[in-house]
Queue: 3 jobs
Job 1
Amino acid sequence: MNRRAIGWIIAALGLALGGLISGGYFLNVGGAARLDGIYQPNPTAGPAANLREAIGAGDSPTISFIENPSAACVNLVPNTGPNYIITMTVEIDGRQRASVNGFFQTYMYLSGDMFDPGFKVVCGPPGAGGKPELGYSHSYTIRARETGGLGAANYGSVYCPADLAQIYLPIVLR
Amino acid sequence: MRRIITPILVMLIGLAGVFWWVQSARGQVDGDRFVLMSETQDGNQREVSAENQANAPTQPDIGFIDSPSAVCYQPDPGLDACWINWYYLSVSSSPNYMITMTVTLNPRPVAHVQGFFQTSIYVPFNMLGDGFKVACGPLGAGGNPTLGNSYGYTIRARDSANLGSANYGTVYCPAFIP
């Protein structure tokens, strides 16, 4: 065996040693492995037997056992996690006027004064929307979508008060 | 002797690579900060970080920032002017004090909130007025064919233990159609 071969064997041993160190580095005494900064269950650790103990000297310790009855792990509906709301959009007369983006939230609530004073539209002359005492009728659609692929939509219309802009031209005498 | 130097160098480089890999797997590094918790969902990301790995607690007191319902709306369809706002911004770090919370939009800081002997910061939408004025943009400008411009935002918070929390998200605006 020449020196070159010995050198390569040393290199291979070094890499193997590094791999062993890295493998052991993740193992935690508590049975949890820390990856990406988050504690995750360690797949190599098996289920632990139930055990309770009161630590200290003396035949009758004054501290009692800790009570933690009914350890439960519940999955009410299998294969369903919490769904997040992704978007909600407001459309008036066929044009998008507001887009709301969810951020790790399972519901979306927007109060009216968040859009204060509201969305500007044309009032229209009396009867323009079909009701003689009111102006234009504006249709709206509110859509929402969630991470589970489901959507919800509201379709409605709102009548505006009539308002006719009247411009009086000045009479200029020459 | 020369023949053995090369394998030893390879071994050292290999070991260094292994240790570097271990370091990055334990906690991602965001800039010069050590990320303790991170979640991603539909392009949005939130994380809690420490100044460095040495002072990184296993259970940080600062939580994720709550910044629901990032909204962009166009009050007047005749103007290329939209407003971005959030329903509220909230973060808590009890028992530590909150030092700051900043909002950055594309990538300019637009709001800076200073804590004052408080363990949480809560900013409702009306504290930001109508929100932050931006250009709505033409149809499809932000990548969504039915909407206008998109704006990336970052909300960062820091507490007195030098732990940080950050939200990274994108908000799409309605398009301006002249």
Note: Helices of chain B lie at 2-26.
Job 2
Amino acid sequence: MELNVLVADDSRVMRQIVIRTLRQAGYDDWQISQASDGQEALEMALAEQPDLILSDWNMPRMSGIQLLQALRAQGSDIPLGFVTSEGSAEMRDQADAEGALFLVSKPFTPEAFRDAIDPLLA
Amino acid sequence: MSALDTTLIADPAQILGVAQDVFAALIDDGEVLVHEGVAPESFDVPVTAWVDMLRADSPHGVRTMVRAEEADAHLVVRALLRMEPDEPVGEEDLVDAFGEIANVVGGNLKSLLPEHAELTLPTVAAEPPVLGREMMVAQTPLEWRGSCFVISLWMLV
């Protein structure tokens, strides 16, 4: 299934690794755009209406959770999943409460992405 | 206000396990190539990356620091970015990639804390800032593909 996906992370290196791992997970035909923080991701998401956002949590200017809150406050229901180095129970609960689809912890594997994403595509 | 409880993370075996997971997943395609190493007496041309775990209601925090020779840090950058063995590593990529190693290691250790803390964005420099009252609570030297990395945890007081 071809999707337009927005990857938000302040690390260019991590964005590259996320995209590479998505390819390894089998999502070869996804069209992927990139944002370098939450604010840029918000602007791109509202303009481009991607099918899915994969966002880091801890970013300058606007965090991932603030991005999710800002999207919902503006009436956007674009699905969002977190890809973050901090997978504490408290953060998972907060992500759930705000309506995130999933939280994949760094370091991740192709299997971790498939486990999180495949059920959404079924 | 009391300091963060580092009982679960100030453990060399715990730090080694996190580092093995990070390198295996992000660099070595699942293969565990990180092992316990020997800390050098000093670094000639060091690169240091760190993130801090901070609590809003306390001046105390915990710093996760990753330190290596610059040439060894370049090996990590090339491996992360799938660069050629002799490809030059720019300063921007060094700061980004080596900082992400500290970020992911620190984030995973933070997840083991029994209480909430905020993780700072990573900082990369030759030397960490001298605070004067920090105290090392754990240090784990690592060997990866013949290179040495030292991960240490510091109580910021």
Note: Chain B touches chain A at residues 21-22, 24-26, 30, 77, 80-82, 93, 96-97, 99-100, 103-104, 106-108, 110-111, 113, 116, 119, 121 (CB under 8 Å).
Job 3
Amino acid sequence: MCAMAAVKTETVPYLEAFRARTRDSEPAWLVERRRTAAARFAELGFPTRRQEQWRFTNLAPLTQGAFPPNSVENRIQIELAGELPAGAWLGSVQEALRDRPEVLRAALDEAELAGAQPFTLLNAALFDDGYILAIEPGTAVEHPIEVVHRGEGGGSFHPRSVILLGERSSATIVETFEGRGKSWTNSVSTVRLGPNAHLRHVMVQESGPEAIHLGLARAALAAGARYENFLLTLGARLSRFDVHAIIEGEGARCGLAGVTLLRESQEATVATFVDHAAPGGETREVFKCVVDDRAHGVFLGKIAVRPGADKTDAKQVSRNLLLSPRAAVDTKPELEILADDVKCSHGATVGDLDADALFYLRARGIDEAAARAMLIEAFAVDAIEGAVAAGPMRDHLRRRVGAWLEQSGS
Amino acid sequence: MYLLEINNLHARVGDGKQILKGVSLKIAPGEVHAIMGPNGSGKSTLAGVLAGKPGYEVTEGQVLYEGRDLLAMPPDERARAGIFLAFQYPVEIAGVNNMYFLRSALNAVRRARGEKDLDAGQFLKAVREKLKLLEIGEDLLQRAVNVGFSGGEKKRNEIFQMAMLEPKLAILDETDSGLDIDALRVVSNGVNRLRDPKRAIVLITHYQRLLDYVVPDRVHVLGDGRILQSGDKSLALELEKGGYGHLGSAA
């Protein structure tokens, strides 16, 4: 055995950039934390397809390219539909470091790094961009908060979002990721919900056709909290989004849903992991994927029910539509149940458009392309309507799906 | 001139089984034809072949619709040219709103006829008129196509669509099956209102019952993939008494 572990070459440009950056203005705890994360990243290297969680995801476009981290601040646009109430604080990571470092520290604890994936560690080492939303107990933010993360040009971006909701507070946030050119966006959103807090978290990934997006949303739910995440995946040549929810308190509820629409040679993975660590939790998952041309969609859905998390009620559905003979889908549910009196179910389907429905529409005069578009839209919109309440948010998502269908013209 | 001319039509299903073995039939505008026959005689196959349903292969013969080669037209083009099939089993389409579907269909058909699209107001007005005709509640239109409809509602919805699309040739595939007497009356009234000198209607049915309400000009008996006998409405009554048994190999 070598005394020194071999250097993982793919990590070198990122670690060099990490070392080159001075962090003199940052608090000591953060500098230390970044160092820890970078060291772990160096140990782990990039994931490989030998690891079960990455078996279906072809990372070649990432490993074969060079994406030195960018060091530009404020590459973020925050829009508010209305005034923020007293008790809600919203600002960029840089503003938070200046004005509310304690909020940042509360979110970025050691538990977040333990067992984290390499890219999450890399984000923890390098993040400069992103925003912090912190809401005091009992405060409801009525208007949706819209955040757009823009990665322009080449290189890599490591935006960090932190959402902290106090007891009985609520908010709706839409995060849109728009990576441009040959860029790599490596985003992490950290969510902590206090008792009975309620967050609606909509994420739209519409990066350009040459971009790469890897993202993680990690939510910890206290007793009675409710987390509703909707993920719309449209862009990027290679993308993977992990949604990780931990039911820490009794009776917390977690709703994860998403629509992935892929064409040409796009490669996209959606990986969910709901960890029921407290009794009486509820999980509802509905993920739909439409794959055309030579694209490849992957869904990995893990639900764990820890000892003592009795009366857990979890349901997972993965539905996939293949529109071309060369399109491919891998879907893999995984249940790990170590508690009693638990209701857990999952179902997965992969298929073509319903031939009977297609004929029915055509028999009424609707041409084939329009009939197909109608059925694809219905397939996708069903997941949106099941997860997102009627209103501007649902309309926004529907429009994105409609725009995708118009582009295909098939 | 005939609206539809079927000459020596042979067709088989995907697994190679020959179902139609030489059907010939001529239908003029304004006529109502009934095609009767036992299960397995080829009634639904004939309807499917005429509407362009996938899964059938025509091996011989010809179908002319307004003098055009019908079998060369894709199903949506047939519909836009004025052919309407009322499905025996209307398909449930989750996520597609009934109203949106119907408006898309109507405008597609209207454009093919050289007419302008209906705007939302005109469309709604037309819809309300025809809904009354078939005793359908407006709430049915807000739902997804056929999803959660009762059997009777599905069949009424088919005739409602027919009323909206105003076809030249309507083929009703066992529209009477599964209907109770009240629903049968409503559906029959709807069909009778759509009788028109310019429109031909083909009623495909197993039972004579429907023909008490919608009286046909001609009745054909289909058996083993051929038309075994043709006559006027009295033929249906004979069949009612004697059954299909006496019709040779058609039993």
Note: Residues 98-112 of chain B form the longest helix (15 residues).
